[in-house]
Specification:
By secondary structure, the chain is α+β, with helices and mostly antiparallel strands. It has two domains: 33 residues; 176 residues, Lipocalin. Strands 1-4-5-6-7-8-9-11 form an eight-stranded antiparallel β-barrel. About 13% of the residues have low confidence.
Length: 213
């Protein structure tokens, strides 16, 4: 009887020890604790542009208002040593893009089907982070970009900078063709000015750590 009781006691102790070790390993893992949620902050530095060409001159449309969220991972005990990017997304309302030329804007919104598809969206699929120099990192990313309701997978290199105040700046650009997203290159001046199919999406995003993460 005592032998049976000893075995039960031993099993219970082993279970308790295993549970405690699991909590220590998985519940308090430094890699888990060092992941934080960041959101795009309202900063004068944030910017997103669409750049293109036309039969008359180059053109650009610029936006200063958009939303986004990211989850960055850091080395244990060091919030300035970036090690991973677990997720990243942004949402840009097409009507926030402005060129300074009303006729171009109007035709661009029509081409982007802004009345039907309000936002230009991006969502990260995967990323690898490599240090470039102090507080600067090259992020090789793969994600899905949605324009005018059409989603395409894209790859791009993003420069990540961990700033002194703890914010993280992400700079990147990607060349694409409007027709790949079923967008007809807009024209204006009664068709005298026609835009080219190829455009470049450029962005500067500044992410700020959220409290409690």
């Amino acid at each position: 009887m005592k032998s049976l009781e000893f075995k039960i006691y031993k099993v219970k102790n082993n279970y308790a020890l295993g549970l405690a070790l699991s909590i220590c390993i998985f519940g308090f893992s430094p890699s888990l604790l060092s992941q934080s949620i960041y959101k795009i902050t309202d900063s004068k530095d944030i910017d997103m542009k669409l750049l293109g060409t036309s039969t008359l001159h180059k053109w650009s449309m610029d936006a200063k208002t958009f939303e986004g969220e990211a989850q960055f991972g850091f080395a244990p005990g060091n919030d300035h040593e970036l090690t991973s990017l677990k997720s990243l997304s942004f949402s840009l309302e097409a009507l926030n893009l402005k060129s300074g030329e009303k006729s171009l804007d109007k035709n661009a919104y029509k081409a982007l089907k802004a009345d039907q598809y309000k936002d230009i969206l991006y969502k990260l699929i995967s990323a690898t982070v490599s240090p470039e120099k102090e507080n600067r990192y090259v992020i090789k990313s793969k994600g899905k970009l949605t324009i005018a309701g059409v989603t395409k997978e894209i790859t791009m290199d993003i420069l990540g900078i961990v700033n002194a105040d703890g914010t993280i700046t992400c700079n990147g650009s990607d060349k694409l063709n409007m027709t790949d997203y079923q967008v007809k290159p807009p024209s204006f001046m009664l068709g005298a000015m026609k835009t080219g199919d190829a455009i470049t999406l450029e962005f500067t995003l500044v992410y700020k750590k959220q409290k409690g993460t």
